[in-house]
Amino acid sequence: MNHIVCIAYVPDTETKIRIAAGGVSIDEADVKWIVSPYDEYALEGALQMKEAKGGTVTALTFGPARADTGLRECLARGADDAIRIASEGLGEVDSLGVARLLAGAIKALPHDVVWMGNKGVGTDAQVLVPMLAELLDLPHVNLVTKLEWKDGAVLAYREIEGAREIVEMPLPGVIGATKGLNEPRYASLKGIMAAKKKAIAVKTPADAGVDPVTVAGEAAHVRWTKLELPPARQAVKLVPGDDPAKAATELLRLLRDEAKVL
Amino acid sequence: MKSLFEDLRTEEQRALAETVRRFVSAELRPYLAVSPPDEFPRRLFSRLCAMGLGGIPFPAEYGGGGADYATYALVLEELAVAGGALAGTLSVHGLPQLILSRYGTEEQRRRYLPRLASGELLGAFALTEPETGSDAAAIATRAAADGDGFLISGNKAWITHSTVADLFVVFARTGEREISAFLVEKTAPGLTPLPPERKMGLRRSPTGGLSLAGVRVPAGALVGRPGDGLGIALAALDSGRITIGALAVGLCRGALDAALGYVRTRKAFGRPLEKNDVVRARLAEMAARTEAAAALVREAARLRDSDRPFSAAAAAAKLVATDTALFVTAEAVQLCGATGVSEEFPAIHLFNDAKIAQIVEGANDVQRMVLARALLS
Ligand SMILES: Cc1cc2nc3c(=O)[nH]c(=O)nc-3n(C[C@H](O)[C@H](O)[C@H](O)COP(=O)(O)OP(=O)(O)OC[C@H]3O[C@@H](n4cnc5c(N)ncnc54)[C@H](O)[C@@H]3O)c2cc1C
Ligand SMILES: Cc1cc2nc3c(=O)[nH]c(=O)nc-3n(C[C@H](O)[C@H](O)[C@H](O)COP(=O)(O)OP(=O)(O)OC[C@H]3O[C@@H](n4cnc5c(N)ncnc54)[C@H](O)[C@@H]3O)c2cc1C
């Protein structure tokens, strides 16, 4: 089976985010970039399948040159190939644009399973999985926490409110991975050394069959108009008193009347 | 604190350092926070081996990583940021691998190296004895010819992994002026580990005595020729010194991180400690000395990697890096005030490990002796 794993290279969740001048983007200086953690579950799922049944794993991203480091990490963990659709000079591209670029590249590759994280850390739009599946005319199953493989199909387990849903999806198809699916491996020393020798194929949007003017800038359907940092967290409120029973009652009152969480 | 010279690392070295950092924050630190302080982290050791880090600089054809010492040192440095024990384990585990790679027969290598690299076996190095440490030539343990094998009798002391190792390289006297090296499996009848020492630092790495009461080993357990033992031990220690130097640099970085964390949040005399010039000067001094030690360790590793004689350089690197670690960790304890001496915080543990690093793999006065000998020869 041939696996394509779509990778987003995003700011580390522990990075301190600052808003850049202009107010519609983040200041990228000093940001540490990582492969989006949800994509790590996707990659691990693909690698495990490849190890069990053979085939190839290709890591695919749309992004600037720094994303090569993320692709290299995927190669070090065991991906066979890596492709980057270069985003340089394009300006802002919305989720649909990204989906079109990824779909264009994927169409040119043999693919049985297309893997993604259910969302990209940072933008958290959570729309790419269905968009990409529609554009590829493939079925999809999202927020998957467990998989069982059958002939020509896959049983995907999804946690839904109060229950677990089991979906059978024929292949080829798109899988949106989420936390719980597996425990992503570390790159091994051998993998890191071997990744050095693998090439990253850099493509243009045109290579993916997409005219940049149809996805970027004014063509984007969704544009950021303003970014704001969340308000600073309020100071901790201590409930004073020597009598635990009284303090507990006061705490309950505060939770009900002030915090309104009860 | 990341190295000021991070940018000089190759892309692979950076990727590897990043991977180890992830391991440290996702697995090692959480483990250290909840586990008993004397527990040997065998599971984490196995995890490292699964990442291909169980035999970094040893030949790939026997399951090793086939990488250089600079890479090995880098991994040990990154691991030791959270404390010296696990890095110390990888360092000591490397000694039997080094000895087998360089002096073992083909059969010995095939039998042990792949299982050491994979972590199935944990290695140990048994030289020191109750009556002698620095003066390795004075060991009293004897190996007498016995049929087609040897009978080893004596006592070892201060042996890392004494209670948890699967394979020991044991040094014993095979003649009046002759020391030889033997492979002894933990199951060998007559081999008994004594209760581990209760020590100030590196507590998660058990260290203790071994009683060898007529331990019979086959002829195939001899490594090298009879009489090669002292040379083998000293050669292993030469390389080991680079690893202890790297470990010490990691302790420095961990201590600097602890101090930076404290002074950023602590207020005294109406402002954060980080705004205090005395504090800032101390931090700068700690960072500068750390980088100097790190550079020396890197250069010693590079020298070894280029197949040049490196014994004096390794002695210098071990001496400077561990002395620097004691200085930097002591400064970190000081800068953290009373918090610095609390066992709930990392500074004092790093300090304790640094003190021990000055003694293992040859006490620092022995490094001075080695270095002076090279200067005056
Ligand atoms: C945590 C830990 C782990 C260890 N792990 C191992 C292990 O795995 N395998 C193993 O074989 N050993 C191990 N050791 C032992 C270690 O190698 C010895 O402690 C070390 O070599 C010093 O020997 P010693 O303790 O006998 O000190 P001594 O030889 O008694 O020396 C004491 C001090 O005297 C001074 N001194 C000694 N000789 C000289 C000299 N020639 N010139 C100037 N000054 C000198 C030094 O200041 C030295 O510190 C370990 C020790 C510790 C603490
Ligand atoms: C075992 C023990 C027993 C103790 N017993 C008592 C006790 O009985 N009663 C009691 O009241 N307290 C006691 N203490 C607390 C002790 O007095 C304080 O730890 C000490 O005054 C340092 O304060 P701190 O820990 O808050 O460090 P901080 O004030 O946070 O200072 C941390 C470090 O910052 C630096 N620093 C701080 N201010 C300056 C400055 N102005 N210029 C330059 N550098 C600066 C120093 O390097 C200092 O070490 C005890 C502490 C210990 C460890």
How is this structure best described in words?
The complex is a heterodimer of chains A (262) and B (377). Chain A has 262 residues and is an alpha/beta fold. Chain A contains six helices and eleven strands. Chain A has helices spanning 37-53, 67-77, 95-107, 128-136, 189-195, 244-258; strands at residues 2-6, 9-11, 33-35, 56-63, 81-86, 113-117, 140-150, 153-160, 163-170, 173-177, 200-203. In chain A, the strands form two sheets. In chain A, strands 9-8-7-10-6-1-4-5-11 form a nine-stranded mixed β-sheet, with helices on both faces. A two-stranded antiparallel sheet of chain A has the order 2-3. In chain A, strand 8 and strand 9 form a beta hairpin. The termini of chain A are far apart. The mean pLDDT of chain A is 93. Chain B has helices at residues 11-34, 42-50, 69-80, 85-103, 106-118, 229-265, 277-305, 311-335, 337-340, 346-357, 364-376; strands spanning 123-126, 142-146, 149-160, 167-175, 178-185, 191-193, 207-218, 222-223, 267-268, 271-272. Chain B is globular. The longest helix of chain B has 37 residues, at 229-265. Chain B has a four-stranded mixed β-sheet with strand order 1-4-5-8, with helices on one face. The chains are: A alpha/beta (262), B alpha+beta (377). Chain A binds chain B through residues 69, 72-73, 76, 186-193, 195-196, and chain B through 11-12, 15-16, 19, 22-23, 50-53, 56, 60, 65-67, 71. One flavin-adenine dinucleotide is lined by residues 266, 268-269, 273, 276, 278-279, 334-335, 337-338, 341 of chain B.
Per-chain topology:
The complex is a heterodimer of chains A (262) and B (377).
Chain A: E1 2-6, E2 9-11, E3 33-35, H1 37-53, E4 56-63, H2 67-77, E5 81-86, H3 95-107, E6 113-117, H4 128-136, E7 140-150, E8 153-160, E9 163-170, E10 173-177, H5 189-195, E11 200-203, H6 244-258
Parallel strand pairs in A: 1-4, 1-6, 4-5, 5-11, 6-10, 7-10
Antiparallel strand pairs in A: 2-3, 7-8, 8-9
Helix pairs in contact in A: 2-5, 3-4
Chain B: H1 11-34, H2 42-50, H3 69-80, H4 85-103, H5 106-118, E1 123-126, E2 142-146, E3 149-160, E4 167-175, E5 178-185, E6 191-193, E7 207-218, E8 222-223, H6 229-265, E9 267-268, E10 271-272, H7 277-305, H8 311-335, H9 337-340, H10 346-357, H11 364-376
Parallel strand pairs in B: 1-4
Antiparallel strand pairs in B: 2-3, 3-7, 4-5, 5-8, 6-7, 9-10
Helix pairs in contact in B: 1-3, 3-4, 3-6, 3-7, 4-5, 4-6, 6-7, 6-8, 6-10, 7-8, 8-10, 8-11
The structure holds flavin-adenine dinucleotide (2 copies).
One flavin-adenine dinucleotide (FAD) binds next to strand 1, strand 3 and helix 11 of chain B.
